[in-house]
Specification:
CBS-domain; three-stranded antiparallel β-sheet; about 35% helix; alpha+beta; three-stranded mixed β-sheet; single chain; globular
């Protein structure tokens, strides 16, 4: 399955020049805590409610005077719409993220893939394993193998089995 088949294509974005106050108000109004930051259609960063809390509120910066560009996360993992869902899941696990921006061939933002999007396509146990993997301090090795729509093999140490034993779920 390709990322484009599972992603959410209608993504609201913000600009680097917008004030953090304006973005925080949008977050509150829309009930979301994440915006891709785009400049002329190109992804330049991500701003989250956590970025605002840690980089604006905690530092006692004035939200109305602070620009998104000054506090957004700039080193952003992303995937392509033509990537396999497996590739995107690995990127999410490696970066311990719950959402990943999706780009087209011209590197323009075309959507976002979230754990919710994956859950709609994947078996329940796979979704649980992915959520656990992106929530860990140290990344867990989750290997996705073709086994029907999606399958997963996880390291045995998670299950308490002796090293070298593995389990496969489909």
């Amino acid at each position: 399955m390709k990322v484009r088949e599972a992603m959410s294509p209608d993504v609201e974005t913000v600009r680097p020049s917008q004030s953090v106050e304006e973005v925080a108000q949008l977050m509150a109004k829309e009930g979301i805590g994440y915006f891709p930051v785009c400049n002329r259609g190109l992804l330049v960063g991500i701003i989250t409610d956590r970025d605002i809390t840690c980089r604006v509120v905690a530092d006692r910066r004035r939200a109305e005077m602070t620009k998104v560009a000054d506090v957004m996360s700039k080193d952003v993992a992303s995937c392509f719409a033509d990537d396999s869902l497996t590739t995107a899941i690995h990127l999410m696990e490696q970066n311990r993220i719950r959402r990943i921006p999706v780009l087209d061939q011209d590197e323009r933002l075309v959507g976002v893939l979230s754990l919710t999007d994956i859950a709609r396509q994947a078996p329940h146990r796979l979704t649980v394993d992915i959520l656990e993997a992106v929530s860990r301090e140290a990344p867990l090795s989750v290997t996705i193998k073709p086994a029907g729509p999606l399958g997963v093999t996880t390291d045995a140490h998670r299950s308490g089995r002796p090293p070298g034993s593995r389990r496969t779920m489909t």
